[in-house]
Amino acid sequence: MKGFASWISVILLSDKYHYLLTPPLLFCSMKKHFLIIFSIIFAAFVLSGCGEDSVSPVNNTPEEYVKVVSAEKDNIRFEIWTTGNDTLMTGYNKVGFKVFENGQAKSSGSVKFYAKMFHFSSTEYHATPVEPEYLYDNSVGMFTGYIIMLMPSDTSSRWYGFYSYNDDLRVDSARFDVGWDNLTKFKIFTDLQTNLSYLITMTSPQVPVRGFNDFICMLHESPDFLNFTQVNSASMFLRVRLDSLNHNSSDNINPVYTSGGFYKGRVNFDYGGGWKVYDSIYYNNTNITNYGTPYIYYNVP
Q: Are domains 4-51+182-300 and 65-179 of this chain identical in fold?
């Protein structure tokens, strides 16, 4: 189906709703009625779950993986393990996969994973960004990487996982649950010249503090929200603004690509209040944020 662009009304909401879509959001190869349903659900998700940032104590203990998903078929079993939660959550999830054949764990090769979300009784679906290929990490005994979950599951919205080991052993269409993390921060925007949509996923700061904060994010490209490509060669330029004081902070460091899909920089919140971190992004010699610079909102105590 030809590309469809629509303005999403949630952008008119207060800045405290930091999980917002930057218009116009372009979905391709989906039926118009499904796009409207998806947009309504997404807006309801924003309103029901996302408010002011909450402050929680910093956890300096070593990361510990917990099994959160198990998918089996015949003599094949895949397990997903993650850190910091007892379920997969909206936003960035650091994960490890374990694979068993006849009860024997695999310790070489690679795992691939794909997730589909269906809403209500529709046969249309959208996907979510995942690690392109999970490789075995001897230090943790798992195939490691990330999963980014765009939305939580509920009685009307269901996630299904599709697993493969070495493109051979497979478990398909295994349902799993996703919880809501109120610290989740995404921004979705579209480059109208290419009709490609982009997703910024923040991993730091989760709980911002006054002064300097690491600014770490990932960037994915999608033509249709069914397939996502990890973008590793973009250039990012930050403007950190506190509207209430008509103030732009100084000593910020623009994010640069490091490894594993991550861009790392630094932001300076030198006052308390509601900050907007604008991220101008250039990719393939083009300003892909030319139709409205996306920003991430932080409430700094």
A: yes
Phi–psi pair at 37, nearest 5 degrees: -60, -45
The sign of the CA dihedral 18, 24, 26, 32 is positive
Tell me the three state secondary structure of residue 41.
helix
100-117: per-residue pLDDT in tens? 999 999 999 999 999 999
Q: Is the dihedral of CA 151, 201, 187, 213 positive or negative?
A: positive
> In the 8-state DSSP scheme, what is residue 63?
P
The owner of tokens 């929200």 is 225
Name residue 241's beta-bridge partners.
248, 276
A 10 A CB-CB count for 114 gives: 15
3-state helix, strand, coil in the chain (%, to 5): 10, 50, 40
> pLDDT per residue over 9-56, tens digit each?
232 223 333 344 443 333 344 434 444 555 555 555 544 444 344 333
Where do the structural domains in the chain lie, given as residue ranges? 4-51+182-300, 65-179
56-63, Cβ contacts within 8 angstroms, sequence gap of 24 or more = 56/207, 58/207, 59/84, 63/94
How far apart, in whole angstroms, are the C-alpha atoms of residue 146 and residue 93?
Answer: 5
Give the residues across from 101 on adjacent strands. 76, 104
Architecture of domain 65-179: Sandwich (2.60)
| Integer Cα distance of 57 and 46 in angstroms | 25
- Beta pairing class for 262-269 and 211-222: antiparallel
Residue 11, pLDDT score: 29
Strand partners, 126: 117
Choose among 201, 189, 156: nearest CA to 287.
189
Q: Distance between the two ends of the chain, CA-based, in angstroms? A: 46
Q: Is CATH 2.60.40.10 correct for 4-51+182-300? A: yes
